[in-house]
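2024-03-11 09:14:02 INFO worker-7 job=invfold-0412 stage=load source=structure_tokens
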């Protein structure tokens, strides 16, 4: 028996395709974050993270800024700053933590760039106090499994 597709059957199939796609979740796009969106306010206990940071936590996020000079040439992390910075404020306590930096932990070693060259870093966003067990450095906000590119 030979099967023929009638016009009515074809139209019915075409109408069903969008319904089938409606159940497929859309892939999450890389979210953008700006330095002015990191913190909600300066509360009694210091910096309070913004709702956007809390919502993006655990997701791949991008932020543009500048690379602070690394502490050593073969490091797998750097500090991303809002403005070019010749010195790294990375060893501060969490009470003194600047509101315009975050730490970027690279997923692979990359060649660092000059501190005054704009870059975009992308990685999985994490927030909250964390002390790196290898270096002893403290961070309040960081990107993990990250990479960067010049922009």
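2024-03-11 09:14:09 INFO worker-7 stage=emit residues=151
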């Amino acid at each position: 028996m030979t099967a023929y597709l009638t016009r009515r059957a074809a139209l019915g199939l075409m109408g069903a395709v969008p319904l089938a796609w409606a159940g497929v979740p859309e892939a999450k796009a890389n979210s953008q974050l700006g330095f002015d969106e990191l913190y909600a306010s300066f509360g009694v206990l210091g910096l309070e993270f913004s709702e956007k940071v809390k919502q993006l936590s655990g997701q791949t996020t991008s932020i543009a800024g500048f690379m602070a000079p690394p502490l050593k040439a073969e490091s797998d992390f750097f500090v991303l700053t809002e403005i070019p910075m010749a010195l790294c404020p990375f060893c501060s306590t969490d009470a003194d933590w600047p509101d315009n930096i975050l730490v970027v932990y690279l997923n692979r070693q990359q060649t660092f760039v000059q501190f005054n060259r704009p870059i975009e870093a992308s990685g999985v966003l994490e927030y909250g106090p964390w002390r790196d067990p290898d270096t002893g450095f403290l961070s309040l906000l960081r990107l993990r499994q990250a990479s960067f590119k010049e922009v």
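2024-03-11 09:14:09 INFO worker-7 stage=report msg="Strands lie at 31-32, 39-43, 46-49, 60-67, 77-81, 101-106, 118-131, 138-150."
2024-03-11 09:14:10 INFO worker-7 job finished
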